[in-house]
Amino acid sequence: MTVPADTRTGSPAVDVRGVHVHLGASHVLRGIDLRVDAGEVVALLGANGSGKSTLVRTVVGVLPPSAGTVDLLGHRVGNAVPWGRVGYVPQRVTAAAGVPSTAREVVASGLLHGRRLRLPRGWRGLAADALDQVGLAERADEPTSRLSGGQQQRVLIARALVRGPELLVLDEPVAGVDRPSQEAFAATMTRLVGDGLTVLVVLHELGELADLITRAVVLRHGKVVHDGAPPRPHASHDDATHDHVHPHTSELPLRSGTRVGLGGPLDTDEEARP
Ligand SMILES: Nc1ncnc2c1ncn2[C@@H]1O[C@H](COP(=O)(O)OP(=O)(O)OP(=O)(O)O)[C@@H](O)[C@H]1O
């Protein structure tokens, strides 16, 4: 059972205030405020290059802000954060990466963090349980290099889940992932969110997760341009089953049926802009 963050700390799960990030000569994040409360499932949306990955990497402490503050579970990002309660799935890495590790070994590595440098007793059972949660219990002994891209992504999600996190930060967890893996992921997330998991997830489409998303934050040129209701899935295009949403469109259809203009197309590659 996942325990909501604020039952332990009384603080938001994620609290980003006035964050600026420079990467090389680029001023990528330009004064971001983002709060995620315990039990929320917040989608981070925006065009390519708008700063989504930079923001989540800053949230999990991979990138230092040049100004502003980030607190996780009530602690300033750094050694004080209880990292064992935070799961992170980065963007577009493969679980294989040329290392002949089995799925079980990759998942078990998720049990190691800051202060825990040895696997805990019972790690095999924990890894098996996490693989079971993503529908890969039968593949535990297989080298990850023999798994499909979607299955490898599921192994990385299991690596984040094995800690039993109360906060999960995911960067495009289903990008390029096959349909069965997307469905398995959505089913797992539905169960975990029901148990109180807090989620910050970068997405290009709400897709299978649409019903879980409680709030959407849209970035544009490193700034928040929308923070509120998630876009509503609309059945259109060619057939009635086409129900994913397009958060990159110039207007976000809201669940209420009203539409909010965001000042121009969001699916432009921002890097291509002058
Ligand atoms: N190491 C770096 N040095 C300089 N600029 C960088 C670096 N990494 C990213 N950027 C720039 O920062 C901007 C934001 O990149 P980021 O990856 O955060 O965007 P994103 O919204 O996640 O895009 P995508 O949807 O394509 O993943 C882009 O213009 C990118 O070129």
TrEMBL record:
Task: Give the domain of life.
Answer: Bacteria
| InterPro entries assigned to the protein according to its UniProt record, in alphabetical order | AAA+_ATPase, ABC_transporter-like_ATP-bd, ABC_transporter-like_CS, Metal_Ion_Import_ABC, P-loop_NTPase
Which portions of the chain have biased composition (kind: Basic and acidic residues)? 235-249
Domain (ABC transporter) ranges: 14-246
Supply the alphabetized keyword list.
Answer: ATP-binding, Nucleotide-binding, Transport
Give me the ranges of the annotated region Disordered: 225-274
Query: Which GO molecular function terms does the record list?
Result: ATP binding; ATP hydrolysis activity
Q: Which family does it belong to?
A: Belongs to the ABC transporter superfamily.
Name-wise, this protein is Glutamine transport ATP-binding protein GlnQ
- Organism listed in the record: Isoptericola dokdonensis DS-3
- The gene name reads glnQ_1
